[in-house]
Amino acid sequence: MFQPVHVLWLGLALLLPLRALAVPTPDAEHHNPSMAIMDSENANTVNAVLGDMSWELAFGGTPSAKAPEQLRIQTHLAFVEALLRAVDTRHWPEVLRDKRAVQLDRLRDYRQAGVFPSNTEFDGRRPIFIDAEGRLCAVGYLMAEDAGLELAQSVDARYHAGYVLDMEAAEVQDWVAQSGLTAEECAMIQPAYGPPITEETGTLTDTYLYSTGAWTMANGALAGINGSAFVRGESGLIMGIVGLASGLGQIGYGVAKVPVEEYDCFGWGPCPVDNEAPAAWTNIGAGSLASITAILRLTRGRAKGTAGLQAIPDAVTVPNPEGDGIALRWQYRF
Q1: Of 78, 85, 161, 181, which sees the most CB atoms within 10 A?
Q2: What is the gyration radius of the CA atoms in the chain, in angstroms?
């Protein structure tokens, strides 16, 4: 789905000096691979050529250790797709223009599917052409869809964690020449994948997921009990206190896990399912509901007024020769 953020990226892409990004025609010579790959500024970014430009434009800063990996890859691929679609290819042969359109549509489908390789081999970010589970990188996917999985597997055997601009094998060069993309554009597409994110850096764990579910069901039940009691005007000091304590506890459990950085969970795009933010907000919401219903029950149950006017004899109140007196009664029940 075309997200509003893509409009921003496309507008920015039109302003970028594409010539400075070295996007040549298919017949131009390749740049020295070391110029793109050995750039120290991009050594641990999502892409060796563009660095983390995509994240910076989308979220206004550099990604932290808590940045969800899937969102980071999808953000990069959406950005580079917008860049490549903005390139003027009118002087290219028609067959290559058509092939390019197909490849960019494939890149979009690959990004939306969200099935990316896992880097379980390196401490830092590195390209992984095909991982141990058979998941292909973006360039590997384009190659496999275009020329067959066998070619992608052959390239993986030789350049498993290599950068596109370092792949000098003839079969790679031949594929690039007819792919509708240049070698530099393939290098711009190729993500570098980070190592697995640990629990401390924001990944949703089974423990947090199951505890959130159990606590939410418990507080949902307490909210129902206290809410219905409030409507009926029934007292219940113990259940009110239990509901309030459980609600406040779940609120704290959620607040402790809300990410400091705001990603795309409630903004331009989908929230990654492995991030703690949705579970954290679920805890805060369920805890708030339980707390509110408990407070309502405690307020109404502990001090339920039976206000009314009661006629009482003169002798019970202050002597009044002119007749009866009236008194306002408020009854507290504990």
Answers
A1: 181
A2: 32
In SS3 terms, 84-119 reads as: HHCCCCCCCCHHHHHHHHHHHHHHHHHHHHCCCCCC
Query: How far is residue 224's CA from residue 231's CA, in Å, rounded to a whole number?
Result: 11
How far is it, in rounded angstroms, from Cα 154 to Cα 168?
Answer: 13
203 φ, ψ to 5°?
-80, 135
Cα–Cα–Cα angle for 81, 86, 92, rounded to 5 degrees? 105
Structure tokens at 79: 């950005």
Higher pLDDT, residue 211 or 66:
211
Q: Is the dihedral of CA 214, 260, 202, 276 positive or negative?
A: positive
Q: Which of 200, 217, 237, 204 is nearest to 289 (CA)?
A: 217
Residue with token string 């003027």 = 88
Q: Is the Cβ–Cβ distance between 97 and 180 less than 8 Å?
A: yes
pLDDT of residue 41: 57
List the domain boundaries for the chain.
Answer: 4-197, 201-302, 303-334
If we measure between CA atoms, which residue out of 127, 134, 175, 168 comes closest to residue 153? 134
Cα dihedral across residues 88, 143, 79, 44: positive or negative: negative
- Read off the pLDDT of each residue in 205-224 and give the average, rounded to a whole number: 87
Q: What does pLDDT average to over the chain?
A: 78
pLDDT reported for residue 324: 53
**Which amino acid appears at position 263 of this protein?**
Y
Residue 72 burial (CB count, 10 A): 23
How large is the greatest C-alpha to C-alpha distance in the chain, in angstroms? Answer: 118
DSSP annotation string for 265-332: TTSSSPPPTTBSHHHHHHHHHHHHHHHHHHHHHHHHHHT----EEEEE-GGGSS--TTS-EEEEE---
According to DSSP, the residues that pair with 286 across neighbouring strands are none
For tokens 């031949």, name the residue.
174
Count CB-CB contacts under 10 A for residue 48: 25
**Residues 291, 244 contacting (CB under 8 angstroms):** yes
CA distance 193 to 140: 14
